[in-house]
Each structure stands twice: as C-alpha cells, then as structure tokens.
Amino acid sequence: MLEAKNCDLTVSVVVPTYKRATILPHLLSSLRRQTYRNFDVVFVVKPSADGTEELLQQTAKELKLTQIKQTAGHIVDAYFLGIKHTAGDIVALLDDDAVPADDWLEQTVKLFQTQQLTAVTGDSFPVLLNGDGFQILKENEAPTVYTHLDFALFGHPLRGLEDYKNCIADSGFIYERGNNAYWRKRGAAKALLRGPSMAVWGDVLRGVNLSGDWLLGCAWEMVLGWQLWRQGYQMIYSPNVKVYHIVHGRTSSRDYLEPRTDLLWSVEAELLFYRLYRDEPQLSVLSKLESDLLRVVHSLKYLPSNVPYNIRKLEGILLGNIIGAKWMLYKLLGCQYSPLIDLARFQKR
Fold first, then answer.
1. pLDDT for 223-280, tens place per residue?
2. What is the distance between the alpha carbons of residues 24 and 43, in angstroms, rounded to a whole number?
3. Can you count the helices (H) and strands (E) in the chain?
4. pLDDT tens across 208-227, in order?
C-alpha cells in the first residue's frame, strides 16, 4: 500500500452508466468543478442508443475521460470492468445518478493522506432536479431502532462489527444503525462500504474481483467491505465526503416499484447469507431460519396494509432461500453453480 502522506495522489473515478443521457450533464459538470484536479474518469457504458457515448466524447479531453464499452454482464461486472482500466493511487466508485460536491475528491484524498485507511464511504443527500440545479429533500434523523430482542431474533452482528455504522449479522441480515441524516451530525464512524460513492486504495481494489453471480448487485458493496474487513483493512464513513443522489425512480440496475424487478431485488437480498456461506464461519443457519421466520410473520401481520409489497417480500424470502439452498448444497459438494441461472428467470422481459 502507498505511503499516504506528503505525496500527490492520483485518483481514478469509475462510473458505470446506462440510459442516463439526461442526467449525466449534472454529474459531468460537477466533475469539472472538482477542487482536487489530479484525477481521471473511466466511464463504463452499456449501450442504449440514448446519446450517452456522444455526450461523453464531447467531454473526453476536458476531463481526462476514458470510455469503455460493456458488452456483457451486469452492474457489478461493469464496476470491475472499469476498475481494470484504472491506474490511480485511489479508485473512487460513483453511481451515474450521483452528483458529487465540488470538494468530493479533495475531502476523500485528505482522509487517505491523514489517516491509516483503506477505504472511505461518504454522505448522500437525496435531491430532485430543478432546471439546471437541484433541490435537496429534507430528511429527518432516524437512529437505529434495533433492541437487544431484535438482535436476538434477526441475528447478532459479526464479531468485530458491533460498533460499525452498518454491519452484517450472523443471519446474513444487514444492519444500518441510523440514516445519513443521523450520522452526518455525529462525525466519522467505522463502516462497511455502502452508498452511491466509495473510494479504495487502487492496489487493493484491483486485487479484488466480485464480478459474476449478481444481476442487480444487491448488497455488493457490503460484500466488498466484508472482504476488506476480513483482511484487516480499515474503512470509515465520513460526512465530509458528500454526493447528491438524484431521486428519479430508477437506478442503473433496477426500476423502483416495478413488481418483477422488486421481486428480483428481494430474492438477491436473501442470497447474501449463501453468498458468504463457508467463507464467513460466523454465519449461522439457525440464525438465518429465526430471521426468516420473524420476517414472514411480520409480512403476514401487515399484509392488508400493502398486499402487493408484502406478497413480494414473502415471495422473495421463499424463492431466495430455495435458490440459496441449492447454492449452499453445490458448495458443500464442491460443485460449480451460479445463481444467475435461476435469477435470470425473474428478469423483466
């Protein structure tokens, strides 16, 4: 790993993009305004015939921009395809619907220069586009609501992650201890990677490959953070590293409130336990079963309040565990299996 102090660090920014020609000008404009200038940008473009390629070509020289065409795979594959084309001391990962603050890179580099860190994740403000600018939506603080009983039922955080802003439980359940509005008033905190922007030492990240076995990429950042944590690397959340996340009903991997993709997202969420199974010895099948049972009871209890939503949750738990059990069995037998074979059946056609 590089010695962070007293050196002019280079940054490579990786942005996968798909069908974003109307939003990208806001992101590109913010990159041009960055107060830290020693960076290049790698856009991984999944062709959509919406003018994205032409828009990026117009900005290529001004931003030291490289455009990579993605011909196969999904969102996680796109990130790691872009990472392969980086050379920066630091690699920053950015969603294509996120608009970084002008000092986004400056604050990121400062953390790597002044602290013994391997990765940084930052704050995210939801915004609505408003002409050439945007309107920041008001957020109320939401601290963690988990009690000791909840931890007993949903699973205990993996040992070593108890004081993290977010963590993985031994049931495969993901805990978020408060929202960004809560944490931005409390300063930096240890955290697994999460959100629309992250940054990792380039040499470390280029040695990781999480591509494959994902369609929508549900919780892939947490898996990346878990891998780094298992290797003893330090990560933090910092409210000084800011991006503005455009609220528009669609991410680069899914359409919100579209029943088929919502179901697929729910199924992929269930697979986190099975994805880490045998690699994370603290995972507990009993904790997984307890968590599933509680969530089934909860969905049935509140079924009348929102029938389609709760039905999708129940279907996600059932189908995710069927696919996951198959995956776990193949692992136990030492055989190759990719859940993509079964997940593809839920894709919108």
1. 999 999 999 999 999 999 999 999 875 454 444 456 677 888 889 999 999 999 989 9
2. 11
3. 12, 12
4. 988 788 989 999 999 999 99
Q: Output the pTM of the full model.
A: 0.91
With H, G, I as helix, E, B as strand and everything else as coil, classify residue 343.
Answer: helix
Quote the tokens at residue 186: 């409390």
| Contacting residues for 293 by C-beta, under 8 A, at least 6 apart | none
**Token reading at 227:** 């891998």
d(CA 104, CA 30): 9
Q: How far apart are CA 86 and CA 89, in angstroms?
A: 9
CATH number of 11-143+178-246: 3.90.550.10
Domain borders along the chain are 11-143+178-246, 259-344
Q: Which two tokens stand for residue 87?
A: 């050379």
- Cα 190 from chain centroid? 16
Neighbours of 77 (CB within 10 A): 21
- Is 64 exposed, middle or buried (CB count within 10 Å of its CB: 0-12, 13-18, 19+)? middle
What single-letter DSSP state applies at residue 42? E
Residues 94-108 have pLDDT tens digits of 999 999 999 999 999
